[in-house]
Amino acid sequence: MIDPEFRVAQIVYVTDVTREGAPIIPLGVFAEASNQKSRGLALKARKSLSAAEREMLSPLLRDLLMDPFAYFHSEFRDAWDNAPPGRALEYLGKRHASGLRILGPKDCDETIWFLQRLIAPKLDALEAKLTSAVDREYEKFWRKPDIEQDSEKVFIERKKAA
C-alpha cells in the first residue's frame, strides 16, 4: 500500500561541508507525488552555473555539473526506474549525502486537496500540480541576491499505478 504523498526537495551543493556558513549553490528542485492510483516525479534545474560557482565546486563534480539539468535528469531517470513509488526523494537523498545534496523532502500544501480525494486525479492534473510545486520551490532560490538567475528546464514523468 502506498501512502499518499506530495513533497518537494531542493538540490544544492554545499561548498565546504566542514564549515558552518559556507556558500551553498542552489541547483534545482525535485517534486514527487504518489497515491494508490498514480505517481509522478518532477525536476526543475539550472542549465548552467556562473564561473564563480564552478570555481567553488570540487574538481570531481565540476565536469558533472557543467549542466546541472543534464546531470540531474540522469539521476531522475535512475530514481524513476529504481525507487519504489513515493520513495524517489529518499532514494536520491541517499545517493547524494556529501557536498552535493538532495535536501530532506517537505510536504507540499496541496497534499490534502490533491491526494486525499476519492477519485484519482487525471495525469495532466498530476503534471500541473508537480509543475506548480517545482516552480514555487525553485523561485525561493532567486530571492537570494547573490545567486545569478539563469535558464532552467523542467522534466516530468507520470503514470497510473499498475
What is the topology?
Blueprint: E1 5-14, E2 24-34, E3 38-46, H1 51-56, H2 59-62, H3 68-82, H4 88-95, E4 100-102, E5 106-107, H5 111-115, H6 123-139, E6 152-160
Antiparallel strand pairs: 1-2, 1-4, 1-5, 2-3, 3-6
Structure, described:
This protein has 162 residues and is of the alpha+beta class. It has six helices and six strands; from the N terminus they run βββααααββααβ. Strand 2 (24-34) and strand 3 form a beta hairpin. Helix 3 (68-82) packs across helix 4. The chain starts with a strand and ends with a strand.
List key phrases describing it.
six-stranded antiparallel β-sheet, 162 residues, 27% strand, alpha+beta, 6 strands, elongated, 34% helix
Rounded radius of gyration (Å)? 16 Å
Give the biggest beta sheet.
6 strands, antiparallel
Tell me the helix content: 25-40%
**Number of helical segments with 4 or more residues:** 6
Element-level helix/strand string: EEEHHHHEEHHE
Judging from the principal axes of the Cα atoms, what is the shape?
elongated
Number of strands: 6
Low-pLDDT stretches are 111-119
Strand content: 25-35%
What's the mean pLDDT score? Answer: 77
Beginning-to-end CA distance, first to last residue: 12 Å
Short description:
The chain has six helices and six strands; from the N terminus they run βββααααββααβ.
